TrEMBL record:
PANTHER family: DUF420 DOMAIN-CONTAINING PROTEIN, HYPOTHETICAL MEMBRANE SPANNING PROTEIN. Signal peptide: none annotated. The chain crosses the membrane at residues 12-30, 42-65, 77-97, 125-150, 170-189. Keywords: Membrane, Transmembrane, Transmembrane helix. Pfam families: DUF420. InterPro entries: DUF420. This is Putative membrane protein.
């Protein structure tokens, strides 16, 4: 079964819809009483490391393709996709088990009081802007990455290049803002 002749638009569309829907649902589900055998509080740092590595791989991928190193370009992109899948699985695990962390919740009581808001000031707006754009673009990037990869595996280079010009900056933004959001909220984890 050759990828070149396969129409995978419907499966990609389904995956692209199911992932954000499942992630959204998990935020409204009650937290189960599971104990995974390790301290899940390490996972946000792990997510930031995965996002950092993905951003570095994306820069390397761009460098490689601009220098006509196609094999290195493919390898870095495949690794970036694998890291993104690991991130997604770990992210879902963490958010299905961990209590919600609120930005500016200095005393970790789950309530952001007026004094806490005043203490962090206008940086809250920067944080929420980055978080909102990160979340929206993280959902949007899924079909772009999948279609970009599909076009590459189908050896449809003109269409691959066309969609990659959109995919790369969005994916890079999502990876980088994932790290920035982690750095900004990390003081409020309990």
């Amino acid at each position: 079964m050759e990828l070149k002749n396969r129409n995978l638009n419907v499966p990609i569309a389904i995956v692209s819809i199911v992932i954000p829907v499942l992630v959204a649902i998990l935020f409204y589900m009650p937290k189960p009483e599971l104990h995974p055998g390790f301290d899940i509080r390490i996972l946000p740092l792990f997510h930031a490391i995965l996002n950092s590595a993905t951003a570095v791989l994306l820069v390397a991928s761009l460098y490689f393709i601009k220098n006509k190193q196609v094999k290195a370009h493919k390898i870095t992109n495949i690794i970036a996709v694998v890291l993104s899948i690991i991130f997604l699985l770990s992210y879902v695990t963490y958010h299905s088990l961990a209590p919600e962390t609120k930005f500016a919740d200095l005393n970790h009581n789950g309530i952001v009081e007026a004094t806490e808001k005043a203490a962090v000031g206008g940086i809250r707006y920067v944080y929420y802007f980055l978080l909102l754009t990160h979340i929206v673009l993280a959902a949007i990037i899924v079909p772009f990455v999948l279609f970009t990869l599909l076009r590459a595996f189908q050896n449809d280079i003109p269409r691959h290049r066309k969609i990659a010009r959109i995919t790369w900056p969005i994916w890079f933004y999502v990876a980088v803002t994932g790290v920035v959001v982690y750095i900004m909220i990390s003081p409020y984890y309990h």
